[in-house]
Design brief:
2 copies of one chain form a homodimer. The first copy, chain A, is α+β, with helices and mostly antiparallel strands. Chain A contains 30 helices and 11 strands.
Chain lengths: ~775, ~775
């Protein structure tokens, strides 16, 4: 179905249709029309024969999930309803039907409602099952929806924190929360993989119908033209099912995104509407069995045949088979295939081609072989597959030619002369995916923490002699498991949202190198955190954490591969370190190595000295909790590790060690450098965010989290800090004490802090499969 | 079926039966008669009409898995066969039938074989599908089975290392390897939980038929009387499926073991045969929803009614429901229920009662309610359930009364007057389970390492410019992931086997406190290692590690709860620390706290000084790799942490902090202490084991592993070592360098070191579920 914008009149015209205004108000009261609501209302309206056909034609356009009433329209509805309600007596329970009739009589063109409409309205009201009198009372009293979270005692404004976390996507995130709480998205019991895959496909279809598939595409192709909303949707879906996250990302982000970003108008025209509506399911076929990380050297070829004006796509070896391709095993009909372009005997590097792989009936097209990757640890709702191309021919226009095109005679053109830079530009699509995966993983960690913190406040175990048992979160061991990870979750959230903003604001032409470097660092850091946090939350819930019902185990299995896909974490971290070394080398091109070392050392020592001449021994809490101290230490570590890595590499190269071997020899150092770099990026974002908060209570809470994050990070790496003289022994011990104190201080806020993630209850537990009672 | 020993004549008597001697030789050639072999041979022998009935009656007793030929019998068979083979011409391929006929003619009582037997033998040989001529040639040449592992180059004797690891259970472990390679144990494709549970039950049945269920029971009840073989079986099963491990452990270890250890002759007589044969499946119902860790305070009651001579078993609250009970949801018919015993108005603490829960037809008995725990993260082949008892009455003799009995009139007697000591003695059963779980988990880690090390030696990625890509294990990052964990696996193996020996040798009467303390420490340490190692191996295999086919993900999901069950790791570690503090306090009862501190400080400083006066700055490899250095550092840490924990507690108690709060305040310290204690126990065992190895090549390999284990342990905790002055900065750096060097040195042996675990190939990969080709 199309999701393009069609203007709908703000009010039905006929009296019969106007009488349904209270029902429209109810449908849109929370700003979202969920799939269940659409089904219910439409089915009821269809089934009540007494409603005239004109009602259907006027009312149904208002019941489309992608066409919410504008705020003005909605306000107008409310004003009309309130006016009529106020005219009616308030001494008894008013039904929506009564209010509707009053509206119809007052607002129509003078004509009366048709006979039987009153009964039909009452039937409808009963069938839909709304609390009519309650809604009427609510409109009369202008009372907002009660928010049960607000009724819990919290030492700060939890909703304000949710808004802070959601940022400029708060409305969209709220819409997603409502949507995911709808019955259409309820978790099924454990089911065979084939059934689960179809379930996920249905969910993706529902998202497309909500207009959420095409969010990032231009409006002329049914889209929302808003990459930020698209990435927020991806993150929000991670509150629910990770297979849905991945399938959504494959279809609209990787497949659709590559057509949009690498293709030109003819491709947009031809494909984008159908991609966004899911009428055309497709794949992003980049990875090969032998080239998971090193995609620049992938082996699939696309050779131009000027005789026929076609490209010949070929899989030359088993290592060149496309591997792990999402949507390939069952649903994909088209694939964007990355292949080495050859034309006129010359090689032009990796380009992307649109290649049909499956007919509408679901059969593989000739010369394309498809295999199912089979059962996985998790994400079994995604149909990953393998693809082989045996000289498959596609027409010339199937080259996505924004950054490289081929004339009919085989002549190659590109706006980017350097093939390296061209390849990097093409990969821009992946950066968005990398950031999104990190955000989705972090959301899974938030779910795990929500479950574990609530459990820890309720489950009691042991206690003082002859007294009641105490909640688990009373124990230092338990606080240590959960609270520093909660703090780190907040910190990473700030960093990923900063990075998202930079990524969205940056045009391709400005270059994305620095964004990519930050994405690599943060993706590794965030997904490692997710795996670690979910493991800890599982154990912190004991046996209850092992039940599928609890959902943590599903989140663990689904997100485990996040450390591997969209760039293996180890490979990404090494890239980050090499990038830092290159910048370093560029910056100090004119200095010899000794000069360079002296320069850096002086710089960082200056910085530390300026901040605090007694840095290594000062131990008072005020100092330890200061952003200045934390930042200077975290910055120093990254700078110093960069400098010593450069020294160690230089020493080896001077000894004529092959560069390849020299790098292997310092790999553990490089990983440490990259992690330290990621941690400083995270700290910068979080510290900035905290500083900007105006509300004092909220700033205090976040400030404690900031210190807990930073001091725990320092404590964790205290071996290095002690070795390098940044910390003395007593300061190191003082930091440990301070981490304990901060845990104790954060503990009373812990539950409000997970509440602020605002993950719908419906998302936090799954049904048990075999729990039949006997 | 019974598994008692029945004497079988060493040779069939009739010529017809003697002619089957070559077939018997083939069946027992590897010392194990697997379920598939039994089925195959019996079915073939039954189906060949031409074989006289006397053959069946004489041959079939030799085809029983629990009645292998004695070594003497087997040697006799080989001698007879070789003699006849040597008499026959060697210029052509001899079938087993020809050899059998020669044996029959030479060895019988002069009578000839019956007509038709020759043809029948040839039919049998073909039907069974053995390579007769090959077997004949093998006997003639007296050549042992070729061992493909021996063909790989290794710098030490891999088989010798396997024997060292298996210790005095080598023959039994070899038998288990053969058994688990049998088709009967092959992994089915992914299947619904209900089907999987039945599959596991069938496997347990096969083990019972092999006589492996009753291994720990006395011979008079069909058992093997050998706890060591039972624990080795448990460990060996972990090469295969962890649900099988747990189900086997529940039935024979917890259920059967508690009847054996807590019951008396009347219970043994009545139950043990049927428990060992699995005719009577049962449960061990100790844990309650509200009492997972604190079982001494469980709530279920057993009140003696002298009027009827019955105990009334009752679940007084929802928190008292029996939770996580293995075998309860589907198969268990009887449960050993732990409940608070009340008789004549007096309370005697926790005792165990045999309580029927389900009829032979599978229905719950009246007043017992059973619920399925439902889907879990893993171990879904185990039917965990919940139990409620609504005043269920059982006769007086159902009390397992070895440590406490009730007369008909309700008078209570116990050989152990102290109820605390009595409870502890009853829990002795659990210590074996705790050690066994640690060993099973370690085996899972060995499987993960086997898969990941082999993958790392084969999978190539990146490489020097313009050269071939290099195997992953070339990279320091990859070595760091796998090799220190391989070393730690060897170290923990040594410690768990030492502990097993102590546990088995110790009689209950001697007291098991110290064994329990060590079991708690090592169970925590080993299962944490398992979870950590499997996670790392999954990631080290990249996307391949995420496929179910690869098995690591299954091992992860199945073993994840090992850190929680049989004692939650955090709770166990805190118990370990408290135990150390009590011993410490006892030892220094007469010293005041300052004297105590001085005493300990002097002691450890003396020890360090004697070992090496320059300990904190000496950095040469020889020193770092010496057992003296490693041991002194690891011992010092545990001693010092104990001393400072005592100081910190003392200071708080002196300030009138409640003991409960004082303990909470130092919990992170106590956990560190317990882990340091566990690590020193592991080191002691491993260092001793290495020292005793005679073969130099093997000792060198293990010695490197010992150093890698110890130095990596020190490196990991270098924050503490630097803080406390044990290491200086340069020594800490030298240790890091040495760990890197050791990784590089161990690398060429890595594959042989995982080969020595000798995990059957059949156990290392599972079929893919949906990998249909199109």
């Amino acid at each position: 179905m199309s999701t393009s914008t069609v203007s709908t009149p703000s009010l039905p015209e006929s009296p019969d249709a106007l009488a349904l205004l209270p029902m429209l108000y109810v449908a849109w009261a929370d700003g979202v029309l969920t799939p269940s609501e659409v089904d219910l209302l439409r089915a009821r309206i269809e089934s009540i024969d007494a409603l005239p056909e004109s009602v259907r034609s006027e009312v149904c356009p208002h019941l489309h999930p992608t066409r919410p009433p504008s705020p003005e329209t909605y306000d107008r509805w409310v004003r009309i309803l309130r006016r009529e309600i106020e005219r009616l007596p308030d001494d008894r329970r008013l039904s929506l039907a009564e209010v509707g009739l009053a509206v119809a009589e007052a607002g129509g063109d003078g004509a009366a409602v048709s006979p039987g409409v009153r009964d039909a309205l009452e039937t409808l009201e009963a069938a839909v099952g709304v609390d009519g009198p309650g809604m009427v009372r609510e409109i009369r009293e202008q009372r907002p929806d009660p928010d049960d979270r607000a009724t819990r005692p919290a030492r700060f404004d939890v909703d304000a924190l949710t808004r802070l976390l959601d940022g400029d996507r708060h409305d969209h995130m709220q819409r997603m929360r409502t949507l995911l709480s709808d019955d259409a998205f309820s978790y099924p019991p454990p089911q065979p993989t084939a059934v689960y895959r179809e379930q996920v496909m249905e969910w993706v279809q529902l998202l497309a119908e909500q207009g959420l598939g095409a969010l990032a595409f231009p409006e002329e192709y049914g889209g929302g033209g808003d990459m930020g909303d698209f990435m927020a949707t991806f993150e929000a879906l991670a509150m629910h099912d990770q297979s849905l996250v991945v399938k959504y990302g494959v279809q609209f982000g990787l497949f659709g995104g590559s057509i949009y970003r690498l293709g030109t108008e003819k491709h947009h025209e031809r494909y984008l509407n159908d991609v966004g509506s899911l009428e055309l399911p497709g794949c992003f076929a980049m990875s090969e069995l032998g080239h998971g990380s090193n995609v620049r050297d992938l082996e699939t070829t696309a050779t131009y045949d000027a005789e026929t004006g076609e490209f010949v796509i070929n899989t030359p070896s088993e290592a060149a088979r496309k591997e792990w391709i999402g949507n390939a095993a069952n649903h994909g009909r088209l694939a964007v295939v990355f292949a080495q372009l050859h034309t006129g005997g010359r090689h032009h590097g990796v380009h992307a081609f649109v290649v049909p792989i499956r007919t509408a009936a679901g059969d593989a097209v000739p010369d394309v072989r498809i295999e199912d990757c089979g059962e996985k640890m998790g994400l079994n709702g995604v149909d990953n597959g393998r693809l082989w191309f045996d000289d498959v021919r596609v027409p010339r226009e199937n080259l996505l030619d924004r950054f490289g095109s081929v004339d009919a005679d085989g002549t190659y053109h590109s706006p980017i002369p350097s093939s390296g830079r061209r390849f990097f530009t093409m990969l821009g699509t992946l950066i968005g995916g990398r950031i999104s995966v990190a955000r989705a993983g972090l959301m899974a960690a938030k779910s795990g923490l929500t479950i574990a913190v609530r459990y820890a406040n309720r489950r009691r175990q042991f206690g003082p002699r002859d007294q009641a048992e105490v909640p688990l979160l009373t124990y230092r061991t338990h606080q240590r498991r959960l609270l520093p990870r909660l703090a780190r979750t907040y910190a990473i959230h700030a960093a990923l949202h900063d990075l998202t903003g930079t990524y969205i604001d940056r045009s391709v032409d400005e270059g994305l190198e620095d964004v990519e470097a930050a994405a690599n660092a943060l993706k590794s850091y965030a997904t490692r955190h997710t795996t670690d946090t979910l493991q800890e939350t599982r154990e912190a819930c004991g046996g209850q954490g092992y039940l599928r019902e609890n959902r943590i185990s599903t989140l663990m299995a689904d997100t485990d591969v996040f450390t591997t896909f969209e760039g293996d974490n180890t490979v990404l971290l090494l890239q980050v370190a090499k990038g830092l070394l290159s910048d370093f080398q560029r910056e100090f091109r004119d200095l010899n190595i000794l000069g360079m070392v002296r320069f850096v050392a002086k710089d960082v020592i200056d910085r530390l000295s300026e901040t605090n001449p007694l840095a290594s021994s000062q131990t008072d809490p005020e100092h330890l909790r200061s952003t200045e101290f934390q930042q200077s230490v975290l910055e120093y570590r990254a700078d110093r590790l960069l400098q010593t890595a450069a020294q160690r590499l230089k020493a080896r190269l001077d000894d004529d060690v092959r560069p390849f071997d020299a790098f292997i020899d310092v790999q553990d150092h490089l990983i440490h450098l990259a992690e330290a770099h990621a941690e400083r990026l995270v700290f910068r974002s979080f510290a900035d965010q905290v500083e900007e908060v105006q509300d004092e209570a909220l700033r205090n809470v976040l400030s404690r989290l900031k210190s807990l994050f930073a001091l725990r990070a320092i404590e964790k790496d205290r071996g290095w800090f002690l070795e390098s003289g940044v910390l003395g022994s007593s300061k190191s011990k003082a930091i440990r004490t301070e981490v304990n104190r901060l845990c104790e201080e954060v503990r009373p806020d812990a539950e409000a802090l997970v509440d602020a993630f605002a993950i719908p209850d419906a998302c936090l537990s799954a049904p048990i499969g075999t729990g039949e009672r006997r």
